């Protein structure tokens, strides 16, 4: 055969020989290229959801990605795995991971994920979103690389507004935020407990006390006094009503503070006399049966259980007390033993208004001695002694008229 080739080439001219060599080389290259291309594997490469058909000499999935200049890290999702053998018709899926700045109840962390939405990302991280929790962005929002996801867990709080309780869930940080979230507005006098700046805690109770200040005007009658005057034209021992008494009227203006609709304080601001009362005047006969010097004028005082006819008249606020309360000694300010004398008629007074030791007639109580004092007994106030708690409770608190005899 060598001789035949030699004969062939020897019979060719130099030009024809060169052309033959070129044709042989071209045939070899073409044959080699065809052979190289036919040895490639046909696969589908899906990147971020977009699929492309590629031909590759790579043996593994990892080599395929490098061959296509795809840089990947341990957080990316690659199916099948990097070491999987590349096969004809295979689909290789590459999903690049996104770095997410995750904040859960104020604590920041970084997380990598191949999830598409916020909801999938939270589920992947085993984070449950409950009904009242706050999540930004929303669960259906698409995730972006270097994106931010914030989750605030709602806590239960007992909110009491004006005495009406309700259980609420909130993601607020402070009491002030809670009130804003639930559209609770405060009046000028309203109170918040605890303070608006207080940080919320689970199962905390927040109270809104509605405070009102109102003015109350009350009209009260004032009793009239009975005055007896000696009358020489009347026989001694006889009396005559000269003029009937009439009660006066006063208008009292109070400042009233209400909390959640209930009165907590009542302060007297002003008292105005709207009408003057008139004394009941009784003439007392002093004319002797026989001529005699005119008797000296004197003041007649009733005795026993009769009302006195003279003395200074006061309108007072009265309460009642006993000697058997816890911690009570039963000894009055003047040294009188009430426990040893349970039937005694004694009142506690303000000595600057009614001197201790004074004999006093108390409307509805009778004659009594001013023998005691009290821390709350100031001004026109008295405290009436009773031997039993039930009688003291029955007396209660009322405005009465008293007369200081001496």
From TrEMBL:
An annotated Gene Ontology molecular function: hydrolase activity, hydrolyzing O-glycosyl compounds
Keywords assigned: Signal
A biological process term (GO) from this entry: peptidoglycan turnover
Annotated GO CC locations: outer membrane
Region described as Disordered: 288-310
Segments forming domain G5: 208-288
Native source species: Fictibacillus aquaticus
Keyword Signal among record annotations: yes
Designated name of the protein: G5 domain-containing protein
Stored Gene3D superfamilies: Resuscitation-promoting factor rpfb, RlpA-like domain
Domain of life, per lineage: Bacteria
Keyword hit for DNA damage: no
